[in-house]
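#lab-general

N.A. 3:47 PM
ok so I finally got the sequence cleaned up, no stray characters, all 354 residues accounted for. can someone with queue access submit it? mine expired

B.Y. 3:52 PM
send it over

N.A. 3:53 PM
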Amino acid sequence: MNDLDHIFTTNFILQNLYIIEYVNQYECNMNINFGVCLPATSDVDFGSSLEYVLEAERLGYDSVWVADHWFISLEAFTALTAFAMKTQKVKLGTAVIDANRRPPAILAHITSTLDTISNGRLILGISSGIWNEKSYGYTVKNKVSRFKETVEVLKKFWTENEIEYHGEYYDFEGGAIGPKPLQKPHPPIWINGFGPRMKTIAGELADGFVTQHCPPKIFEEEYKIVKNSAKKAGKDPEKLVAAFMAPFALGDTYDQAYSYVKERGRRTVFNFGKPPHNFAERMGYGGPWEKLEDVPDEAVDQCFLFGTADDCISKIEKFAKKGVNYFVPLPLYPTDRKTLKVFAEEVVAYFKDN
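B.Y. 4:20 PM
back already:
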């Protein structure tokens, strides 16, 4: 090969690599969806929440979400039903339902009704529960095993006229609910989980995997476990939705945006830095931090989405390259309609238009 041929071949390879990279980036951008969650606080009123939801739909967000905790002012399914009556196309999600707060038959009945009322717009985010134990009035033992049975029973109630199920925690012979969900075979189930068993269950039973406040590297590690589990269960792992939910913040400057999430972010990263999650070690910091003040700003920066619009775009791209295809601010700070609009026009539009 002479020098001219070598130059031609090299240029040809580089051009094709560039094209492949461009196409991959284009496809990545085209497949990214965005939702937004209402603030999970005790001072959120229904009127302002409805206005926020209507604005989110008008601005083109793909979904709106409500958390499920005893200390917030809006019960998730009641609020989402009301939102369903006032909206037309935005998806309605739970971020996420505590599976142990409601018996499976009641959960199946509520979700089937909501899916019908909303004309098939429900996304059921669900997990084994956290923070709500004091509101149960009873003790839940082996909550992960119980959670798995709940999801299995839920699917049966959604798809079968009379169910038969004999598990360790639930036993049904001829159980049934009247309405079936509008979506077939059932509304998408997105499972939120951090522990190894929850990730395995997500791969086996879920349509989507939800993770929170972790750096792209750790997300990639967690998602690999979920996909391997899906493959072993005979499912196509590439069809799983990979959702990242965490507090997002948008500001005129990076520091301004950081101020909205700094306290919560540092506390979360500190807690997850310890076993069993070991974020500190997995992020390269050697071991758990001894005090909250020891958590470096850079660790919080890796685990949360905040900054200027350009900062947020850059962070979203890093997660997208690791497989995330759905982003849900939990919530978006500042929690006003102005920020909702700016984020839609300067961040969401970048991924929708490219």
